Amino acid sequence: MQDLIALFLDHKIVITVASVFSIFVVKTVLVKWVRSFAKSKGKDKRDFVNNIKNFLNFIILVVLLGLWAGELQNFALSIAAFSVAIVLATREFIQCVIGFFYLISTRPFRIGDWIQVENAVGEVAATDWIKSTLLEVDPHTYEYTGQTLFIPNNKLITLPIKNLNFHKRYVSHRFEIARDHSVNVHAFLDQLYDTALGYCEDFYDVAVRYNQMLERRLEVHIAGPEPLLEVKTNDIGGTVVTITIFCPTERAIELEQKITKAFMQMWYEKFAAQMTTQDKPIN
Q1: Is 189:271 a contact under the CB 8 Å cutoff?
Q2: CA 204 to chain centre
Q3: Single pTM value for the model
Q4: What pLDDT does 257 receive?
Q5: What is the DSSP string of 10-25?
């Protein structure tokens, strides 16, 4: 029996395969158990699942280094003359690994957060030693595009990261409506404000609390929850009404369409009234 164990220990390839397979089985079982538990409790455990995967991958790396340290050392000594070339060839890979440790130590985002890196916007689905995976989100409609973005971790060191997580629930949605100058929009601006406020009435109390929570956490003033209306002109002399509403993210486009419809109705009513007045004969 002892001879069999000694023979088994001498075969590092067998030990390596067995260790990696065992850890892989443990990882699979743990991930399935956590996901089923989270589903039954209605909780989001994707961040915990991602941490389990990364931790067990780290264990695999430690096991491999422990088993093959001697061989790796001899290999490194034998190719010392080519070490500079190897470092240059694997520079991007090394930077990605360093970027992973940077993400772990600073925690600029968690799994499930919405982030923006340059022009890429998405929900963080997973992180590993090399890359971060995002489910792309359209920043204008706040909807998933169905595309997946893979960002190398070294990019997350050199590029600014915007954490847009609070946009998942509520967003300061800003849009513009442009018309010509034939109607003075100030004549019905108060009516438009009341209409927009009415559309926000059903979630107003929750929006107030969420807005206050964000202001305390970020220590900045965030517009809302009352609608904000601004009037300006564009470069061709037209009138532009900018409307900002603090609303649930999934209802932002719906409310934009309703407010735009109300604006158009008011604008055409004023325009028709002006045309009627101009057409009346002067006695």
Answers
A1: no
A2: 25
A3: 0.60
A4: 93
A5: H-HHHHHHHHHHHHHH
